[in-house]
Description:
alpha/beta, Rossmann fold, eight-stranded mixed β-sheet, 9 helices, globular, NAD(P)-dependent dehydrogenase (Short-subunit alcohol dehydrogenase family), SDR_fam, oxidoreductase, oxidoreductase activity, NAD(P)-bd_dom_sf
Amino acid sequence: MSDLSGRTTIVVGASRGLGHGIATAFAEAGAPVVAVSRTATVFPEPANGAGGIQAETADAGDPTVVADLIDRHQPQTVVLVAGATPHMRPLQQQTWETFSANWESDVRISFHWLREALLTPLRPGSRVVVFSSGAALAGSPLSGGYAGAKATQRFITAYAQDEADRAGLDISFTTVLPRITPLTGLGQAAARAYAARDNRSEEEYVQQLGPLLSPEQAGAAVIELVQADAATVAPGYLLTGAGLKKLG
């Protein structure tokens, strides 16, 4: 698994933030990368390795799109990072539409990709990594249904692993829960909102977060997971600037 040059990797949500860092890292490690996003994105040529990035502008929550992308590219690695930016307001200032946005986006995308990975199925030895959030563990009172949606992503990824094991598919599914980081657009908006809620400056709030997670570090962490022996990969990991930590 150390050689990624022949393993097509689909990164869903690759236009920005952690997804962009992950797509770039896989290409630089030599993998052929299919970068899926709603908006057209230009990626630089990888500085190292033989990999390249093919951009696919598509709705990753459309089940027909999911089936088409898997059929055409036959990936051996799928990384799901896409999701909606939550409406940063307390509960009473949410509408049902803003509250449920991450259920209709993040959970929907995960459901369709996990389902298709099992139905197709992906080739034996394939890996699927689903990005949830540290909010699934700690909650997120300023982001409506975000924390619950992220917890559900973790649940259904575990369900997918159970179904793959029952069918003898030899596919590895795992969830990564990144901690809030102001080094992405989503994390920056969240840090600003929580700092204001706590009557602190944004700098003070960020300082207490500890080592900050960058998109480049996220890319290195996912490569580490994909290259590891499948038997050693845990069902879930917390991801911070200090690296991956197995969840019990």
